[in-house]
Amino acid sequence: MGPQNDSASRFAVHYHYGTVLDLPLRAGAPPAPPTVAPAPEVAFRPPYRVVAVAAADVRAAPVRSAPVVAALPRRTPLAVLGVAGTWAHVVTRAGRVGWIGLYLTVPL
Q: CATH homologous superfamily for 48-107?
């Protein structure tokens, strides 16, 4: 007898939180990892604010525990993309996008 076409050999059984999942097996090399598209360019346009303290951190999220995206000196201009509470979503002339406390800036 020749090889049998057994559908059970084409599936892998995975247990996920008490549920049995029959997932098809893939032949060949594993799929390539997804590519990350470059972030769209953000325009530096009004309204503007400027850093009013000796140094200010632009953060990845509107919380003080978020990673620092950029450290900016006094008088650095920022374009405001939006406001959430006491935080401004900003972009620098260099294209860095992040969040800064409104109390660290003044309108330009």
A: SH3 Domains (2.30.30.40)
| Residues 71/55, Cβ–Cβ less than 8 Å | yes
pLDDT tens-place string over residues 63-76: 999 999 999 999 99
Number of neighbouring beta carbons within 10 Å of residue 21: 11
Domain boundaries, the chain: 48-107
pTM to 2 decimal places? 0.63
Taking CB atoms within 8 Å and a gap of at least 24, the contacts of 57-63 are 57/100, 58/90, 58/92, 58/96, 58/98, 58/99, 58/100, 59/98, 59/99, 59/100, 60/98, 60/99, 61/99, 62/87, 62/89, 62/99
